[in-house]
Amino acid sequence: MIEDKIKDLLQEADRMAGLPSPVSANLSAAVRHRAHRRRFVNLAALPLAAAAVVLIAAGIWNLTIRTTETAPERDRITLLETQLKQLQVKTDAALNLIQKVLVEEQKQHSLDELEAQLASIPDPLEEIQKQVDKTAFILVYHADRLYRELNRTDSAVETYNRVIELFPKNRWAQVARERLSDIEKQKI
Fold first, then answer.
1. Of 20, 50, 82, which residue constitutes the final position of a domain?
2. Is the dihedral of CA 64, 67, 71, 73 positive or negative?
3. Which of 10, 115, 169, 170 is the most exposed place for a label (fewest CB within 10 A)?
4. Do residues 159 and 143 lie in contact, with contact meaning Cβ atoms separated by under 8 Å?
């Protein structure tokens, strides 16, 4: 819009200036022409000065428009910076939460590993029961050797009775009872 006005002013100045006059070899004509040209330049200077004033005014006006346009842009930039800070706070909170979840997950993983290790440890009661069975078996085996190989019936009976006394609910106590019954039958 401003550019169109400037173009119109410049075109009007060109029309007023007219076409250049032909060059003549006559010096007096050249001097007159020069004087005429000076008057014309003086007359043409006025529209050019006006055009310069219009250009300066247009530049100032454009500068004020830019300044007024930048105020909303500054507000928008400030708003965007505020939103960016809020997003940063939310991101930091989310990262903290993720880190806490990872720590809890690691604790759970460690707990699972400990439970697996605990599960791999045999039950102490079962181990004790195995040892009891083994001991009762050894006593019955010893009594059997006393009775069958060494013919020491009294010692064998005593050992069988000891198995029954020490391990009354054990399966080897039942075996000891059966062997005592066999020994009693043989005596009769």
1. 82
2. positive
3. 169
4. yes
Retrieve residue 94's tokens: 């989310």
pTM, rounded to two decimals: 0.41
Number of separate domains in the chain:
2
> 130 and 68, same structural domain?
no
Residue where a domain terminates, one of 82, 109, 136? 82
Query: What angle, rounded to 10 degrees, do the helices at 171-187 and 124-148 form?
Result: 20
Q: Are 179 and 140 in contact (CB under 8 A)?
A: yes
CA distances, 87 to each of 75, 80, 81, 84, 95 (Å): 18, 10, 10, 5, 12
Of the chain, the percentage scoring pLDDT greater than 90 comes to: 18
- Please say whether the beta carbons of 17 and 40 come within 8 A: yes
Residues 77 and 149 in one domain: no
DSSP label at residue 188: -
pLDDT digits (tens, 9 = 90+) for 170-184: 999 999 999 999 988
Residue numbers of the domain that contains 48: 2-82
Asked if residue 66 is part of any domain, the answer here is: yes
Find, among 140, 148, 127, the residue nearest to 167 by Cα: 140
